[in-house]
Design brief:
Elements: H1 2-18, E1 41-51, E2 56-62, E3 68-69, E4 72-74, H2 81-93, E5 97-99, E6 102-103, E7 122-123, E8 128-133, E9 139-149, H3 152-157, H4 181-185, E10 209-215, H5 216-222, H6 227-258
Parallel strand pairs: 1-9
Antiparallel strand pairs: 1-2, 1-4, 2-3, 2-10, 5-9, 6-7, 8-9
Amino acid sequence: MGNDASTLASNEKGKAALYEITDMPPSSDNPVVASFDSEHLTVGAGVAIFHIASSRVVVCYHTMHGYWFLPKGRRDVNEETSAAAEREGFEESGYRNRLLPIVQRHRQPQAYNPATSSLDLLSKEPVWMQLVPVSRTSQYVLFWYIAETIPPGAETSVPPRAEGEASPYQRPPPFPVDLSLAQRIQLEPEGYEPIRHEDTGVNSEEAQYTSYLLPIPEAMKKLQGNIMADVVRKGWEGIEKRREMEEKAAKGASNVNSN
């Protein structure tokens, strides 16, 4: 009985850490040394899904418990963590999405390539990572990614789920390497509203979720200053920096051609 109680308390503590509310901007914790074997480790992924053309982001709402959150969940066995982020984003929000390369600071080395370009400044690396206890002996590691809603053409490339049939999740095509954000926006007709698919949750808990595309400031207010709000902030900041970089490059190329 004592073990059950301590596990429950640890689970509640972990959940509180994920949804912790603070008036202060979040900051990285001090580095730690810890080791967990596979029996005591769970890896998960979450995602902020942006609709770039309308400057909005997908936010989920738990209709029973009344809180706002970004979609996230455990990685399936043998699944890439980045793919898990996209899948969880779809299952919990209903929006198909794909990871979006943005401008961000990180500590991962570039793959060796003598030919470099401005594209090397873009990455799909996680913008945040959280360590959350699952029990007294088990650890949850959660990586937060940045993604975008997919354009109409990509929607049609993914076969629809058969009515009344639970078909496996199919990952959308990745964001094209040579596509700028301006070109990406042009793939949608003016006023296009990304498709929100119904009944994408995989269990009774996710059936209680709904989701909305909200303006960035409103979404951050709903998320109330926790890590998820900063995921949104860092994601949008990286998108804006990419947009500025591409606009500057396009202007420079135009000036060269005019001369």
